[in-house]
Design goal:
Low-confidence stretches: none
CATH architecture: 3-Layer(aba) Sandwich
Strand content: 15-25%
Number of domains: 1
Pfam families: Methyltransf_23 (PF13489)
Structural class: alpha/beta
Keywords: Methyltransferase, Transferase
Order of helices and strands: EEEHHEHEEHEEHEE
Organism: Halomonas litopenaei
GO molecular function: methyltransferase activity
Largest sheet: 6 strands, mixed
CATH class: Alpha Beta
Mean pLDDT: 96
Number of helices: 5
CATH superfamily: Vaccinia Virus protein VP39
CATH topology: Rossmann fold
Distance between the termini: 38 Å
Protein name: Methyltransferase
Length: 212
């Protein structure tokens, strides 16, 4: 059985199989993950992403992103600077923050690679519909948290695992390889030494301590 890609616990257990993939659940952080050998390769993964049609001029897409943008922007101080990690082919959340007066850089490994932006410090970092795609969510999220200034915010949007996992539409996307529960995010927040809040069913906000 594979080790957990979030907390590195070596004793995950087989949780579900749907005929296409297997799913293993961690007994420590409650993350559900697809084993490495059943993930898509880079070309196949990008081919799925290329089918997405998310545009800045789409009011529906902006409303969707508003579920994270609204509660996070209300918590930011004037002049806060941010990073949108995994911005996708049509960066929109970064524009929404820019329009609200918050300078925001972007990074997306496929569409807008900007590794230099991963070496800066920010007052907030967002990742909308990103973490469920991460092969190594633990190392990635720990690295992003280290880029936050004291009092900085990490804002994530992803659907949380339901009780009826077998019927969940989220697992039908072959690029979705890890699935977080509220317990998973509480474990992550504690491991990072951050506070955690759940302003919406698919949104989590974590804040770094203001003292360090």
């Amino acid at each position: 059985m594979p080790s957990c890609p979030l907390c590195a616990n070596p004793t995950t257990h087989h949780f579900h199989a749907d005929g296409r993939r297997d799913y293993f659940r961690c007994s420590v952080c409650d993350l559900v993950a697809v084993p490495p050998e059943q993930r898509l390769g880079p070309q196949a993964e990008k081919a799925v992403y290329d089918q997405h049609d998310n545009r800045p001029d789409d009011p529906g897409y902006r409303r969707f992103l508003g579920r994270l943008f609204d509660p996070l922007s209300e918590r930011l101080s004037p002049g806060a600077e941010g990073l949108d990690f995994g911005a996708g082919p049509g960066p929109t959340l970064s524009l929404m923050f820019e329009e609200a007066g918050f300078a925001t850089r972007i990074h997306d490994p496929y569409y807008h690679p900007a590794p230099e932006n991963l070496k800066r410090y920010y007052d907030f970092i967002t990742a909308t519909e990103v973490v469920e795609h991460l092969f190594a969510p633990g190392p990635v999220l720990f690295a992003l948290a280290r880029q936050l200034r004291p009092g900085g915010w990490l804002g994530l949007m992803t659907k949380r695992t339901p009780e009826d996992f077998a019927r969940w539409h989220y697992i039908r996307d072959p690029t979705h390889v890890v699935f977080f529960s509220e317990t998973s995010f509480r474990w992550l927040a504690e491991a990072l030494g951050m506070s955690v809040d759940f302003p919406a069913a698919d949104v989590v906000l974590m804040r770094r301590d203001t003292s360090h």
